[in-house]
Amino acid sequence: MSKSAASFIAKSTIKAPDKEHRRKINFNIGKYNATVPLGKAQFSNLMQAREQAKNIKWSAIEHLDKHLEHFEQQITRRGAKVLWASDAEEALNYVGKICKEKNCKSVVKSKSMVTEEIHLNHYLEQQGIESVETDLGEYIQQLDGEAPYHIVTPAMHKNKEDVAKLFADKLGTPRDLTPKELTLVAREKLRDKYIKAEVGVTGANFIIADIGGVAVTENEGNARLSCAFPKTHIVIVGIEKVLPAMTDLSLFWPLLSTYGTGQKVTVYNSIITGPKQPNETDGPEEMYVILLDNGRTNLLKNPKTRESLYCIRCGACLNACPIYKNIGGHSYDATYSGPIGSVITPHLSGMQEFKHLSNASSLCGNCTEVCPMRINIHEILLENRHEAVETGLGSISERLAWKVWRMASMHRLIMNSGNGQIKNWMVNRTFTAWTAQRSELNFSQKTFNELWKERTDKRG
After folding, report:
1. Is the pLDDT of residue 262 over 90?
2. What is the 3-state secondary structure (H, E, C) of the chain?
3. Domains in the chain, start-ordered, CATH in brackets?
4. What pTM, to 2 d.p., does this model score?
């Protein structure tokens, strides 16, 4: 068993029976479930919109090399610099080099899962550079020393009392502040950071090939401030985020906001096409775009897992998943949690270390049902399991168990023997993981085959 698998089992075992955790998550996801149908109402034919979006992403991923090269050509014409990073280490080295050239002492960072993926904050801290999360949810998590809990809602597992206590402990505020007052405290703390930071870092929801633009959607305006106030703007984005044309945003922005938060469209939607131009007064003096692979081409090369690159990070599959809602985001020990995280993490971070995530699923298919891009998530989870077995990553006990099961299933006499007591003992005493959280199984004294044979013999 890998270290990550052992940690997953330990954390999920603790979190699953935690009723207070379940209450908070059900409350917050309940709010989501109430608003998403309102957002969906803006589409006259929602299924057609989802199919169209999937077809656009299919084209984008199938011609990924051409779209990325075109994006680079277009954005460099306006003065931005494009850097290609094969892995997290290379991306971090780029950031470190840029910060060193700018004599950077502090960085402001908007919400970005890809920067969590490469552990940017930890790297900058090692370099003696202060990195401040400016998204309110991310800021709360950073204060608490925790990773994001959810792709869209980083502090979903905290209620307002938890946040008020955290602010009181870390910032010295009164413990009875309202959510509005807590937000004002965060705003006051962060505004000064924007002004002093030498570098601003953002991610990107999409990169637009035909115009060479970076599209960012948000509800707080922190991304705009992060890229506009500092003199240097660094974008770190996965190569799969490409869209062929700017006109595609008229479909993708509403889909992302509807399935992410239930809004028709988010509050702030920006397209950044380069640094400040000679005739412009606002914006950074320099802009860098780091295009990150970091295992994405592992997904790309397999036709069966390739469609996971269509993901727009809306978080809908997490909110629908019965496993996620019981064990929470931190149990996964990965940047991307829930169903889509279980699909992509083994390919981004190593199948041997994270193959267990593909088994952390009921295969109910609810994730596939709610995905706006219609990604067959539950089928790719099965493909991951198949790949793990085919590459010899299954444990000896697992292989032996399936071998015994196959042998028994192929021989009717074995299947009919040991009914009742022997089968009960085998499952309830040998497979103790099953009965640890469940009542004992009680097998029938006769198999269906035996009952049917008796029935036909009597008719005889």
Report:
1. yes
2. CCHHHHHHHHHHHHHCCCHHHHHHHHHHHHHHHHHHHHHHCCCCCHHHHHHHHHHHHHHHHHCHHHHHHHHHHHHHCCCCEEEEECCHHHHHHHHHHHHHHCCCCEEEECCCHHHHHCCHHHHHHHCCCEEEECCHHHHHHHHCCCCCCCCCCCCCCCCHHHHHHHHHHHHCCCCCCCHHHHHHHHHHHHHHHHHHCCEEEECCCEEECCCCEEEEEECCCHHHHHHHCCCEEEEEEEHHHEECCHHHHHHHHHHHHHHHHCCCCCCEEEEECCCCCCCCCCCCCEEEEEEECCCHHHHHHCCCCHHHHHCCCCCHHHHHCHHHHHHCHHHHCCCCCHHHHHHHHHHHHCHHHHHHHHHCCCCCCHHHHHCCCCCCHHHHHHHHHHHHHHCCCCCHHHHHHHHHHHHHHCCHHHHHCCCCHHHHHHHHHHCHHHHCCCCCCCCCCCCHHHHHHHHHHHHC
3. 1-41+311-394 (no CATH), 46-294 (3.40.50.10420), 399-459 (no CATH)
4. 0.90
